[in-house]
Structure formats: C-alpha cells, structure tokens
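Task card 7
Instruction: Convert sequence to structure tokens.
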Amino acid sequence: MAVCIAIAVGACVLLVTAQSKGPAVTRDHVVTPDSVVSGKATTSAGKEDPPASERESSAGGVDIKFNAATVYDALEPLGQQLPRLRAEAARGNAYAICILATALDSCVKQMMGSNESPWKDLSSGDAIEKGNDRQIQEFSAELEKHKRLDFMCTSVNQNDMLERDAWMLKSAVSGNPRSMARFALNPDFAGVMRMDDIDRMIEYRKSAENMLNRAAAAGVQDAILGVYRAYSYGAIVTSVGELKVDKDPAKAVAAAKVILPFLGDAERKETESGISMLIANMGKAQQARMVSDERAYKKAYQSRAAAEIAGREAKADSPEAVCSSYAQ
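Output:
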C-alpha cells in the first residue's frame, strides 16, 4: 500500500507501508535510522597530528585511534572490506564512515551509468590518436578512473548500495566537507520511501543549510557555488523540492566571485549579470561584508588540494583522497 505524504522540503513522496517496518536490512548488516542520524559533528582544531601509524577519528564526540592502512585498502575490492569498514564505523571511526559513504556513492553512480559514456568513447583508442596532449592526459585519467571503479565495485551488490544514503548522512553529520556538500545539494531521496528515508529527510530539513555553509567555508567548490545559488534565489533547490533560506546578497556575491573563473561561458555571463544587480542594491555595510566573505571563501578554496579541486587526476575523487583529512 502506498500513501502520498508531504514532508521535509515540500516534496510529496510515496511511503510504501510494506517497507516501513523495521530497519533497512542488507546482506549481512543492519542499518537503523537511529544508528545513522545520532551523533554530533566534532572538530580536532588545535590538536597536533598523531604519528602516521596511529590516527584519531572523531564521530559522535568519541576519539578513535586507528591505522588508516588497516581500515581501507584501495588495492582490495570494496565488497571484501565492507565487514571491516562497518565494524570500524560502528565504533565511531569517521574515516571508515566517510569511506563507506564515498565508495558506495561511486558504485551507485557506476551502476546507474553516470560514469559509463567516457569509458565507451575512450576504450576505442581513436580519441587518443586524434587528441592533443591535454586531451590525451584527460583521456588517460578517465581510463584509470573507470578501471579503478570497475575493480572497486565488482564485488559490491545492490543490497550493499542501499546503505549509501545512510552512510552519506552519517559522514555529513560527522563533519566531512565533501559529504556535507553532497548531502545538502544532492540528497537523492527516492520517490518511493522507506521509514529510514523519511528520517533522512527530517535531518535534511534541519541541517542542510548549516552543512552547505560549513562545506563552503571549508573550500568545497560545489558548496561555494551552492551558496551563491541559494542566497541569491532564497532557497536550496534539490530534486525533491526547495528548502527556503533567507536571501543574503553579500554572501551570494562573495561566493559567486570566487567560483566565477570555473564556470562555463554561458553560466559565467549569467552570473556576472546577477552579481551586478545584487551589488547595485547593496549598502556599504553589505559591501564590506561581501569583501570579507569573498576573501575567506577564496582562502579556503585555495587551501584545498589542487587535485581535489580540479577533479581531473585519476584518484582525486577516490575514497582515500576524499576522506584523507581523517587519515592525516
């Protein structure tokens, strides 16, 4: 039996009552809504990094000592590592939580075909023969990326992939900037909902704006662009509806100026026009805050690793790279 309900960001979703009882069950693991949503974001600011052989990870306010190499190995298929990663995540290891979120997200995209078309084009070899040096480097990076994804995801089944959203939220709640940006801008709630999906939508309504701002302050490119769009329009727009926010022209323009060089021609012209209109209606105090915010966004953006920002190196978006802040 399906019932249409309105919840969270104004989307009407279908609740299948046959699936609404109990937790989301996977092949050898149970993910309950409470185990995902519980926990508060923590920070290790002011602490010195421990030796490379022993790291600390915080999730839910608990410091976890671990060796990153024993938690996740990029040379081993993901499916074989899931029991170990789940065990580490269950004891509050934010690195393991981030790995689960990022790796399963990549496998879901691979399964859905979002990473498929470049592979078909590049595997023929024609493009490499005809391309210039820069194109050849990009093609080679794409080939390496798809080989890595194929290897990583081969042993992951669809039941494993159902855990993706739960771990993504847990990683975001734990404070990972990329996960916060991903959850705030692309929650990916399905049209047919389970009870744990509804819990995620409730958490989204409560936390998305804060997560978006924290991710932007950490220099995540997508989040900075999201800040411009949200605070110039007055809402975070997602595939499941809009989450209203108060318009903030100063913050919007500050973010837009930082992200402007990385936009395509058409979007850059549109954004420049929007910037001009917003600035024309600003007072002196707003303009001063705009300058200050722009400086802060730019500094945060530039401080992130060039490979992660550009997203062009073969391993720039790998789980170990995305989650490296927990293993350093």
